[in-house]
């Protein structure tokens, strides 16, 4: 799983920034929950090419900024933008850092890729120091709902299995954590199904766990049915995203 995810994101390091439409929207909205502050050590999980980082820097003045990402080429992209950052190539599920050193931990559009979310998130929360704050955004079940329905009918394509909001709420809902949740749905519009699929592919966020039927006729059937079912009056293609925002502090 992780090797494939890494490969997809590495392959898209040159195209990510120009195609990460929803990721940019979510990053900005997550940053809106952050009160401007100063801190010693800040950790961004899944820093990627730095889409969320730019918003973080507008809100947080950190003496030391650490960024971790699974995809090495994405990190190189960030290194070229943020010269003084400490960047680490690693896996959040086997975090090579001591969480208790950090005052703020942030992550946008990343934690849905965890292989062991219960264990990894609980380990992170257990090791937070008192007063440390976290800001997270996570893609939820309901994302790509249109594509999921069309795939069921046409047997073309597959969708990565995302968790629902209750799954994450049950993990974060602890006596030692002060917690706020916000769930929000977005609908973006594309000129065609092909336009959407090309854009999505260029972000690297395309690991799905399953091998799907792939053939020209199946693909054409998929595109045709998607348009028949969902095309708007102005001939646009809707794509739904469901996002959970989490703000928490260790008591």
From TrEMBL:
Pfam family, one: Methyltransf_11
Any one GO molecular-function label of the UniProt entry: S-adenosylmethionine-dependent methyltransferase activity
Gene3D superfamilies named in the record: Vaccinia Virus protein VP39 (3.40.50.150)
Signal peptide from the UniProt entry: none
Methyltransferase type domain residues: 43-136
InterPro entries per the UniProt record, alphabetical: Methyltransf_11 (IPR013216), SAM-dependent_MTases_sf (IPR029063)
Designated name of the protein: Biotin biosynthesis protein BioC
Source organism of the structure: Deferribacter desulfuricans (strain DSM 14783 / JCM 11476 / NBRC 101012 / SSM1)
């Amino acid at each position: 799983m992780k090797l494939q995810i890494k490969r997809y994101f590495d392959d898209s390091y040159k195209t990510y920034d120009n195609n990460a439409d929803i990721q940019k929207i979510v990053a900005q909205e997550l940053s809106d929950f952050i009160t401007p502050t100063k801190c010693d050590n800040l950790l961004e999980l899944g820093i990627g090419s730095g889409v969320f980082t730019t918003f973080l820097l507008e809100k947080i003045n950190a003496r030391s900024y650490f960024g971790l990402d699974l995809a090495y080429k994405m990190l190189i992209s960030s290194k070229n933008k943020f010269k003084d950052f400490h960047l680490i190539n690693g896996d959040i599920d086997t975090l090579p850092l001591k969480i208790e050193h950090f005052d703020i931990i942030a992550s946008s559009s990343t934690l849905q890729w965890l292989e062991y979310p219960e264990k990894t998130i609980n380990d992170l929360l257990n090791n937070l120091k008192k007063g440390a704050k976290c800001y997270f955004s996570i893609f939820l079940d309901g994302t790509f709902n249109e594509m999921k329905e069309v795939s069921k009918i046409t047997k073309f394509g597959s969708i990565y299995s995302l968790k629902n909001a209750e799954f994450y709420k049950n993990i974060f809902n602890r006596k030692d954590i002060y917690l706020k949740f916000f769930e929000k749905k977005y609908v973006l519009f594309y000129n065609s199904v092909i336009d959407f699929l090309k854009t999505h592919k260029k972000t690297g966020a395309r690991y799905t766990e399953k091998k799907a039927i792939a053939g020209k006729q199946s693909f054409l059937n998929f595109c045709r049915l998607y348009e028949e079912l969902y095309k708007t009056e102005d001939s646009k293609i809707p794509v739904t995203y469901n996002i959970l925002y989490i703000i928490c502090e260790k008591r």
